[in-house]
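Review form for a predicted model. The reviewer records the input and the model, then writes brief findings.
Reviewer: anonymous (R2)
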Amino acid sequence: MYDELTKNDIKKIEEEIEYRKLVVRKEAIEAVKEARAQGDLSENFEYYAAKKDKNKNESRIRYLERMIRTAKVVSDESKDDEVGLYNTVDVYFEDDDETETYKIVTTIRGNSLKGLISSESPLGRALLGHKVGDRVHVQVNDRAGYDVIIKRLEKTVDDGSDAIRSF
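Model under review:
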């Protein structure tokens, strides 16, 4: 399995990597040095906390670099009247008689609790390329699926505010 990234995703990831290498790494190394200078390391909580923060930063850098190396680059362009990446849609769930609003995002930004659904999720994949008024079948697995109707489409864009998921 690979992540799908747009050129903007890659740019944002590269910016975070650079920031973590040039700013966070220096601060973390300095914090470890200061904590180590306080003496007895066996009972030095500050030293262990500083080491933990330093290691967490290094893990995040490796995670982001691996994400770029293994990702598939996708386009975020779509027709004006069709659902595409970063577009916001109102979807009517017929079975529940409810309308929900979702923004279609790349896999690294998905967060269903905030209404951000991945283009690789069953719902996201089903909505892509469809228009307002279309009834769309969402196949969840081999035995289950449901229908939704696209009620509204807003051609929103990637403004960089949707966070990249942590590991």
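Findings: The chain has three helices and seven strands.
Further findings: The radius of gyration is 21 Å.
Recommendation: see findings above.
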